């Protein structure tokens, strides 16, 4: 997990950080405590947070929001067929 702040909001948590590319705030809401703990101990992020979008999971992992992720990794948006790999 990238450095940031975890704030309790009712029964859920919100993760807040600043994008390492542009410095703008980035946050993910609606996180469960147990899922956060399991992920921090090594569980796969997609297993612990299946309801989050890939963009929200990226914020947890790197702090990058969609626009900056796309700017840093423009080639990842290309369509690949099975023969590419």
Write down the Rg: 14 Å
- Secondary structure tally, helices: 4
Query: In angstroms, what separates the terminal alpha carbons?
Result: 29 Å
* Mean pLDDT, all residues: 88
Reading side by side through the largest sheet, how are the strands ordered?
1-2-3
Helix content: 25-40%
Tally of distinct domains: 1
Low-confidence parts, pLDDT < 50 over ≥5 residues? none
Beta percentage is 15-25%
Shape: globular
Give the biggest sheet. 3 strands, antiparallel
- H/E topology pattern: EEEHHHH
What is the count of β-strands?
3
Structural class: alpha+beta
**Oligomeric form of this entry?**
single chain
Topology:
Elements: E1 5-9, E2 12-18, E3 25-31, H1 33-40, H2 45-48, H3 54-62, H4 66-72
Antiparallel strand pairs: 1-2, 2-3
Descriptive overview:
- With about 80 residues, the chain is of the alpha+beta class.
- It has one domain (about 5-75).
- The protein has helices spanning about 35-40, 45-50, 55-60, 65-70, and strands spanning about 5-10, 10-20, 25-30.
- Strand 1 (about 5-10) and strand 2 (about 10-20) form a beta hairpin.
- The chain starts with a strand and ends in a 13-residue tail after the last helix.
């Amino acid at each position: 997990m990238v450095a940031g702040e975890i704030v309790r909001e009712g029964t859920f948590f919100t993760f807040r950080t600043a994008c390492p590319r542009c410095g703008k705030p980035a946050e993910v809401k609606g996180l469960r405590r147990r899922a956060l703990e399991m992920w921090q101990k090594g569980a796969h992020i997609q297993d612990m947070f299946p309801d989050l979008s890939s963009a929200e999971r990226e914020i947890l992992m790197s702090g990058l929001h969609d626009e900056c992720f796309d700017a840093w990794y423009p080639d990842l948006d290309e369509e690949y067929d099975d023969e590419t790999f």
